[in-house]
Amino acid sequence: MTVTSASAKAPPTIDRKARLKIPPQPMPAQDPKERVHNFDEVYLPLTLETAKAEAMRCIQCPAAPCQKACPVHNDIPGALLRLENGDVIGGAEVFFQTSNLPDMCGRLCPQERLCEGHCVVGKHARPVAIGRLEAFLADQLAETVGYPAPDTIEPTGFRVAVVGAGPAGLAVAEELAKKGHAVTIFDAWPQPGGLLTYGIPSFKLDKRVVDRKVNFLLERLGVHFVGGVYIGRDKTLDDLFAEGYDAVFLAHGASVNNRLDVPGADLPGVMQATEFLVRGNLPPERLPERLRAPLPKPRHVVVIGGGDTSMDCVRTAVRLGAERVTLVYRRTEAEMVGRAEERKHAREEGVVFEYLTSPLRFEAGPDGRVAAVVCQRMELGAPDASGRRRPVPVEGSEFTIPADLVVIAVGYTADPDVVESQGVEHRPDGLVIADEETGETTRPGVFAAGDCVHGADLVVTALAAGRKAAAAIDAYLARKAEAAA
Predict the structure, then answer these.
(1) Structural contact between residues 401 and 302, judged by C-beta atoms closer than 8 angstroms
(2) What is the pLDDT of residues 37-93, one digit of tens each?
(3) Which of 20, 159, 207, 266 makes a 20 to 30 Å CA pair with 410?
(4) Do 167 and 283 contact (CB within 8 A), yes or no?
(5) In 3D, which of 95, 76, 180, 187 has the Cα closest to residue 141?
(6) What pLDDT score does 387 carry?
């Protein structure tokens, strides 16, 4: 199906002033008092009538700043115009032309600083709910006619190994499989999905949405998945090339938890964010054996950090039945890098926020497990390298927060083991050095994109980088075919 631009399809007599008067549609969601007792998605499905009415709020502006602000440059006005006219499948197809994961990006993107943050309607009222409409359209297509795929795929004879089954890896696998290349995804986790399965709680992204996409790749496109294999430890890049792969794409993300260097950080009951999230959100059968023991029910939980992962942790702790959940962050809310919506949801769910607070040490109780976090108040000084004002301790401001579980959520970095001594140049922090446009690394035939190159970022930025790399890998394989002819 050929999709033209939104402006070409927009009626020439569209009344933009009238559209600005259309009231925002309510986005149905679970009541906070109910959702704290389940792991279901916070937002409830839209009806077609609500979705069409919200889509009509788009004024179809020719400049389309929302499209420019989207990392994959979705034709948002074009998709919403089709939706308002009742063409749900056509609207969804517009999103799928530029995105492999609109059903997930619609749920997870920080739309307030991307598409919706640049929505012209937002200058007059609430921006059009682009994210919710994107997810609605993608769900409708996936659940009725299925994800878009070629009717026939001619095998090329080339084999590609993808390292990492997260957003970038899944996107590259799909793009290359549609071109006829045989793709195998290797991942350290037992099942596919990477961050989407093992990093994001179900109340933000239902695991069935991820499984739906994975099943499409495996069953419809013939992608193979090998789980429980850590490239760089269990198998090397040399091994992959020796096994006959013609190219390798690195998409192993930024999966190593940053440590917090304070006394008591090694006490029982002090846990890194990833372990807490996977054990708290996933059934044992989806986890490695070492992580299958259920978490003890916590009473007083303290989470250290200020990004979206910390919000995932505090909200998971609430759902696990904790009596009190406290978020400790050394700056103010204005300096937090995560989504404002996530903080709003956390407050609604009873999370206590301790801003301008930094942990000094973790103290043990009589049983040897963590029992308290000793904190210190902070004030903001001069800006640091990040441009944010540096927290400065306030003398004599120590206080204690009881805690039988402490979760460290202070960011992630890449694992250098994946590329160490593999002929792939990387930075000291493990991030791979790769061409911004093609994903080419210093080792011929090895490409990389996403969080393992840029550090922990958004699903959509990993997706965008992966799509560029997929095109470059396809071109690389085409050159190999020409050279062999």
Answers:
(1) yes
(2) 999 999 999 999 999 999 999 999 999 999 999 999 999 999 999 999 999 999 999
(3) 207
(4) no
(5) 95
(6) 84
pLDDT at 5: 40
Backbone angles phi, psi at 221, to 5 degrees: -105, -5
Q: State whether the Cα torsion 335-341-342-347 is positive or negative.
A: positive
User: 341, 370 in Cβ contact below 8 A?
Assistant: no
Q: Are 447 and 473 in contact (CB under 8 A)?
A: yes
DSSP strands (E only) in 365-438: 370-383, 389-393, 399-402, 405-408, 412-413
Q: Which two tokens stand for residue 226?
A: 């090998």
Exposure letters 381-420 (e unless 16+ CB within 10 A, then b): eeeeeeeebebeeeeeeeeebebbbbbbbbbbbbbbebbe
Tokens 């702790």, residue located: 317
Residue 412's φ and ψ, nearest 5 degrees, are -135, 160
- CA dihedral angle for residue 292, residue 294, residue 296, residue 298, rounded to 10 degrees: 100
Extract the tokens encoding 289: 């054996």
Distance of CA 174 to the CA centre of its chain: 18
Q: Distance (Å, rounded) from C-alpha 143 to C-alpha 150? A: 18
**Could you give the CA distance from residue 31 to residue 348 in angstroms, rounded to a whole number?**
9
